[in-house]
Design a protein that fits this description.
Helix content: 40-55%
Structural class: alpha/beta
Largest sheet: 5 strands, parallel
Strand content: 5-15%
Number of strands: 5
Shape: elongated
Number of helices: 10
Oligomer: single chain
Order of helices and strands: HHHHEHHEHEHEHEH
């Protein structure tokens, strides 16, 4: 039930969907009811917000606090025992239809997975990702990721695939059950930078301590905070990504699926966060 409700909520929460629905509702009122002033107001507000969000820097203001929450991971000489890569990056349906691997917008996760598998030849590689589709037939990402790893020479006994999860909370819960991390082991978590706060919160909630390895930053950093967009589609896409994550953070916190509202790097007195190269 949570999965279905989250998908429905996400559809109506995305600015590109919500504002189009607002405009369409206004047009219906204009055509089918006598409330012309209200109808015109709704259409004008909807169009104005589409222009504002699609072309102004507002989407950057929404996304940057997410992407900049965790710094880039820095090696400190101690190799990880395992690497967890979150799904949501492979177009499983397109891959099945075309007979070749088709990536979605977060292909950096796969590239980083292959890079880390080669860089740390003793580490276990865990890919966790079922299908997040609500309507289309469910084809999981994980088996395709496993094929990619084997094709690039990663030994089969190093590969662990988790194919049942449909949400980030399930990624964390099912992965912990599968790998049974031991005290003192070092695990990296690879996912998109904007998705890292919710992911870390989910893993902490189930008691699986991981170090953030953010990729797929989607921006150059705070330097873009004042930059407008030249195409509405770009601004709306970035706003959709940000609102999806902020909504997810709030819902996960309220439903007990995250350790805190806005998870960040762990800091201890007298030392830096592990992501900055010094374990605490």
């Amino acid at each position: 039930m949570f999965f279905i409700l989250s998908k429905v909520l996400n559809f109506f929460a995305l600015p590109s969907n919500a504002l189009i629905i607002l405009c369409v509702f206004g047009l219906v009122l204009l055509i089918a009811t006598p409330f012309r002033r209200t109808a015109v107001s709704l259409v004008v507000v909807g169009l104005a917000l589409l222009l504002l969000i699609g072309l102004s820097p507002i989407p950057n203001w929404l996304l940057l606090p997410l992407t900049e929450r965790f710094p880039a991971w820095k090696a400190d000489g101690r190799a990880p025992d395992g690497i967890v890569v979150l799904g949501g990056t492979i177009n499983a349906e397109g891959t099945a239809a075309r007979g070749s691997v088709e990536m979605d917008a977060s292909g950096e996760r796969i590239l980083t997975m292959l890079k880390l598998a080669r860089q740390y030849p003793s580490a276990r590689i865990v890919f966790t990702g079922g299908s997040g589709n609500l309507i289309q037939p469910a084809l999981p990402d994980a088996p395709i990721a496993g094929q990619i790893l084997e094709e690039f020479g990663v030994a089969k006994d190093r590969i662990i695939l988790e194919s049942q999860s449909r949400t980030t909370a399930e990624n964390a819960m099912f992965t912990k059950r599968l790998v049974s991390p031991k005290p003192g082991e070092r695990w990296l978590l690879v996912t998109s930078a904007y998705h890292m706060p919710r992911s870390i919160g989910s893993f902490r909630k189930v008691g699986f301590e991981v170090e953030a390895y953010p990729v797929d930053w989607r921006s150059q950093g705070w330097i873009e905070a004042t930059e407008p967009f030249s195409r509405m589609s770009d601004g709306l896409a970035r706003a959709d990504t940000a609102i999806h994550e902020w909504t997810g953070l709030i819902v996960y916190w309220l439903t007990g699926r995250s350790s805190e509202l806005f998870p960040g790097p762990r800091l201890s007195s007298g030392c830096k966060d592990a992501n900055e190269g010094e374990g605490c």
